[in-house]
């Protein structure tokens, strides 16, 4: 049973969500009743749908007894995390034939790499790509040829977008199939050190590129614990992965065995199987709470304070920043994975990984054990270690009672810190999110004069010019979803980290994002209302004293209240952000996107 605090938060979400959730479930039931099979298609419709299939597959799909599995894939060979998916459709089709079914690629979806676009104009498309991915997957599934779907995706916006699509087509059973992290390369602390040396001008581009290439060196997900790996954690703790699937390296026999197993299971949970499990029924308020608990227990990505709200809304569930913050206050930090520690996700997996984490959270009453999963009822089946059997199939053993490496993964009674570290900040500058789990306690409170920037390059230029060797709080505004798509500002971490290491008290306040790699510098991010909407952040002037208190969750400009209220919000010329690298294609998105604390989505209930 969950603790009283987790139970109360869940009950509050359920009560708040009742009207929208009931409406969603009614639409789901109507879709099931209308026919989750090909009998609803005319002969011409059906002929188009299997025209490229083999004769045997055409015969199978002509009736309504052989289930058809839709594959939604985010494969491209530019992203290391998604390149392994090139092989997956063949694996899935073969596995489908082995269990008497058919599988077709229903659609491919775009997948961009934030690591490539950091600090570049293309980053301004990144957040919006989540909603594009949801729509692209929806186009593929709209053919109504499928009895279930498998989703192949890993990285930052891809999994949230696929999740939104899956819940939009909630009458279909769905399983998420990951590709796994790349093997470990250059240690993360060494990578950070090299970046700071480059920011200081002490090494050149050649040395930096060599270090980066040693860090990001092969197929698979980046190994630090950013948004991509937080995605995998959440899919498993919500029961959308096969147990133990999240962090097995790509192109290994165990990874392939897990993929084949997921296909067989997908057919078992169709209407043609014995355990019909439409994903919209499976995922409920308890599942979403489990995802938030996992996010806090592992020190996960701040991006999910935006994504989870949009993801939950796709199932008619109303999640808020206060819910996330209150769960954080009641969930201890159990994992130390970079940037919250020095180890990477491969070390986390070797220490016991998701199985140990889930078992420990369950024992402490911090997750809902009784949720439905793609594997069956309850989370007990996920408290395991996964291995390859002698016959090439997946073998699961109970997770250990003791972590294999207590410095990376610990128990709930001996946590690394008593709370998860994701907090809502409130004050006369609006509301914001801060992740303090990677920030040393002595750096969590900063009171210093503001230096206002309206572009991240302005801050970098000021640093290079030696103008920032002092205590200050950088206010980087006009970076919200309506302004320019809310890009990540991760390129600001090295210069601010250098200044902090020099002994200065520094912090960042922005209506932009700071990425899943939010690190050692205190950062109040996702400030809402954003500057372009006339939020208070647009009234701040250089020289204003700002108090940022990560422990107390306050963000205030220390200006007389009447004076601050009487100030006019400044405006900014956003013309340079409207064109180039495809930004002109997203003008309509910028006009209709919602607030950060509402999921920064173009989909509105």
TrEMBL record:
**Cofactor(s) required for function per UniProt:** [4Fe-4S] cluster
Keywords attached to this entry: 4Fe-4S, Carbohydrate metabolism, Gluconate utilization, Iron, Iron-sulfur, Lyase, Metal-binding
Cited InterPro entries: 6-phosphgluc_deHydtase, Dihydro-acid_dehy_C, DiOHA_6PGluconate_deHydtase_CS, ILV_EDD_C, ILV_EDD_N, IlvD/EDD_N
* Domain Dihydroxy-acid/6-phosphogluconate dehydratase N-terminal, first and last residues per copy: 67-380
For this chain's record, the cofactor binding note is: Binds 1 [4Fe-4S] cluster.
Provide the reaction this enzyme catalyses: 6-phospho-D-gluconate = 2-dehydro-3-deoxy-6-phospho-D-gluconate + H2O
Taxonomy, superkingdom: Bacteria
> GO molecular-function annotation terms?
4 iron, 4 sulfur cluster binding; metal ion binding; phosphogluconate dehydratase activity
State which Enzyme Commission number(s) the record gives: 4.2.1.12
- Tell whether Lyase is among the UniProt keywords: yes
What region holds the Dihydroxy-acid/6-phosphogluconate dehydratase C-terminal domain?
407-600
This protein's pathway reads: Carbohydrate metabolism; Entner-Doudoroff pathway
Q: Name one GO biological process term.
A: D-gluconate metabolic process
Query: At which positions is [4Fe-4S] cluster bound?
Result: 155, 222
Q: Please give the Gene3D superfamilies that the UniProt record associates with this protein.
A: IlvD/EDD C-terminal domain-like
One GO location term (cellular component)? cytosol
Q: Which family does it belong to?
A: Belongs to the IlvD/Edd family.
Protein task = Catalyzes the dehydration of 6-phospho-D-gluconate to 2-dehydro-3-deoxy-6-phospho-D-gluconate.
Q: Which HAMAP family match?
A: Edd (MF_02094)
The name of this protein is Phosphogluconate dehydratase
Organism, scientific name = Notoacmeibacter ruber
Name the gene behind this protein. Answer: edd
């Amino acid at each position: 049973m969950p603790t009283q605090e987790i139970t109360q938060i869940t009950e509050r979400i359920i009560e708040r969500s009742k009207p929208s959730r009931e409406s969603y479930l009614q639409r789901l039931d109507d879709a099931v009743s209308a026919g989750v099979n090909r009998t609803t298609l005319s002969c011409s419709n059906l002929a188009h749908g299997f025209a490229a299939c083999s004769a045997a597959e055409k015969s199978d799909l002509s009736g309504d007894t052989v289930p058809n599995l839709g594959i939604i894939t985010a494969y491209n060979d530019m992203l290391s995390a998604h390149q392994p998916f090139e092989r997956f459709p063949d694996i899935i089709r073969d596995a489908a034939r082995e269990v008497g079914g058919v599988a077709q690629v229903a659609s491919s979806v775009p997948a961009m790499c934030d690591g490539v676009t950091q600090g570049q104009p293309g980053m301004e498309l990144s957040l919006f790509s989540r909603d594009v991915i949801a729509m692209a997957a929806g186009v593929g599934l709209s053919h109504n040829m499928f009895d279930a779907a498998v989703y192949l995706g890993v990285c930052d916006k891809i999994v949230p977008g696929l999740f939104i699509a899956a819940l939009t087509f909630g009458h279909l059973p769905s399983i998420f199939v990951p590709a796994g992290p790349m093997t470990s390369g250059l240690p993360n602390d060494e990578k950070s050190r090299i970046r700071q040396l480059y920011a200081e001008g002490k090494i050149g581009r050649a040395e930096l590129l060599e270090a980066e290439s040693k860090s990001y060196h092969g197929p698979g997900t980046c190994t630090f614990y950013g948004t991509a790996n937080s995605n995998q954690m959440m899919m498993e703790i919500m029961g959308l992965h096969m147990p133990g699937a999240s962090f097995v390296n790509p192109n290994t026999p165990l990874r392939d065995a897990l993929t084949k197993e997921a296909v067989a299971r997908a057919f078992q949970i169709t209407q043609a199987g014995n355990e019909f499990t439409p994903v919209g029924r499976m995922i409920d308020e308890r599942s979403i709470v489990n995802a938030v608990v996992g996010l806090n227990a592992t020190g996960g990505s701040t991006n999910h304070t935006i994504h989870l709200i949009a993801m939950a809304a796709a199932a008619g569930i109303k999640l808020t920043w206060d819910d996330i913050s209150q769960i954080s206050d009641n969930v201890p930090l159990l994992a130390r994975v970079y940037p919250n520690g020095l180890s990477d996700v491969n070390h986390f997996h070797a220490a016991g990984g998701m199985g140990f984490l889930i078992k420990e959270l369950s024992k402490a009453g911090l997750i809902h054990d009784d949720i439905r999963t793609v594997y069956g009822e309850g989370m007990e089946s996920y408290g395991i270690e996964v291995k390859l059997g002698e016959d090439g199939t997946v073998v699961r053993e109970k997770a250990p009672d003791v972590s294999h490496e207590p410095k990376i993964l610990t128990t709930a009674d001996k946590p690394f810190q008593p709370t998860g570290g994701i907090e809502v900040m409130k004050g006369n500058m609006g509301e914001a999110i801060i992740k303090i789990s990677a920030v040393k306690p002595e750096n969590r409170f900063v009171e210093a004069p503001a230096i206002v920037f309206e572009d991240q390059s302005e801050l970098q230029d000021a640093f290079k010019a030696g103008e920032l060797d002092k205590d200050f709080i950088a206010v980087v505004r006009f970076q919200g979803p309506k302004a320019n798509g809310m890009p990540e500002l991760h390129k600001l971490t090295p210069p601010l980290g250098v200044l902090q290491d020099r002994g200065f008290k520094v912090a960042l306040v922005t209506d932009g994002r700071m990425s899943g790699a939010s690190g050692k510098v205190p950062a109040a991010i996702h400030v809402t209302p954003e500057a372009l909407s006339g939020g208070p952040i647009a009234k701040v002037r250089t020289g204003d004293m700002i108090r940022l208190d990560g422990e107390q969750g306050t963000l205030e400009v220390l200006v007389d209240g009447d004076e601050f209220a009487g100030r006019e919000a400044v405006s900014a010329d956003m013309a340079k952000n409207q064109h180039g690298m495809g930004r002109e294609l997203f003008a309509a998105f910028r006009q209709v996107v919602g607030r950060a604390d509402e999921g920064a989505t173009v989909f509105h209930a």
